[in-house]
């Protein structure tokens, strides 16, 4: 069974598109990181999976490179050469790495992609320094790019959104499961747009800006990326509850054990179903994950989450259709949601 299906077919060439964009961006990203202080640069390289502690080369698994692909495709969709979007791709990759390094410290996460996180490998203070350096390097990279002034304005808005989303996410953990102070699905949706969607939207928009696109085109790409981010986050929540650990990379029910307020849980608690009250009691008493997952599904949390993801995929499509884009790049952008969200449950 697939997490999300879409009217847009999964393009056979999407993995190749991602690979093409990675090959375009990686040398520039590596050269940019190489300008950092050697020790800080080593920590940054470790965060990207390029090296081990001490600097020995490594081949740790990295991400798909979605943000950098969005930046390159954003430039191409605006009618420019994909290379015009590389500075945007480098900047968003640096911001994303910064956010992960700091998120791991705030969440106390000891591993990421099967390796110790930067703060576990180097210490909390050095990891904070590495994150700060990545952030500063992202700003410097955009400032030096042609058209960088407009791009920096967009990045600053995105950074504010990202920090707002992170703040909300941390505060959610302190709020009760039930009662008037409980977290509502709409609040979660806003948090996910800020924390996850904002940087995806920014990536595509920055590529378009550096490619010379008018503001309306950049705005449309930003909206599409934000919707894609919310859909991806919601499906990730579903996989965290019912996914195959071989696909998700984390133990089944890990989010439940950590009592994370994910979308399926919040939707189930908000449902007018007898299972909702039973679920609330179970969560408040640190009950067993398998039973909680069954109650979430019975109350409609899983179905609500998948419907939510579908809505955001459709909204991303609508945003892309609202402005003229170069056909080939637009087709690749439209294929990304189906490809990225079609993960086996």
Describe this structure in words.
The chain is an all-alpha fold. It contains 16 helices and two strands. A two-stranded antiparallel ribbon has the order 1-2. A hairpin with a 2-residue loop joins strand 1 (111-112) and strand 2 (115-116). Helix 9 packs antiparallel against helix 15 (301-321). The N and C termini lie close together (6 Å). Mean pLDDT is 90; it is low at 1-12.
Shape descriptor: globular
Question: What is the total tally of β strands?
Answer: 2
Residue share in β-strands: under 5%
Q: Which value, in Å, is the CA radius of gyration? A: 20 Å
The number of helical runs is 16
> Which class do the helix and strand fractions yield?
mainly alpha
Sequence of secondary-structure elements: HHHHEEHHHHHHHHHHHH
Distance between the termini: 6 Å
Main sheet overview:
2 strands, antiparallel
Strand order of the largest sheet: 1-2
Low-confidence stretches: 1-12
- How confident is the prediction overall: mean pLDDT? 90
What share of residues is helical? Answer: 55-70%
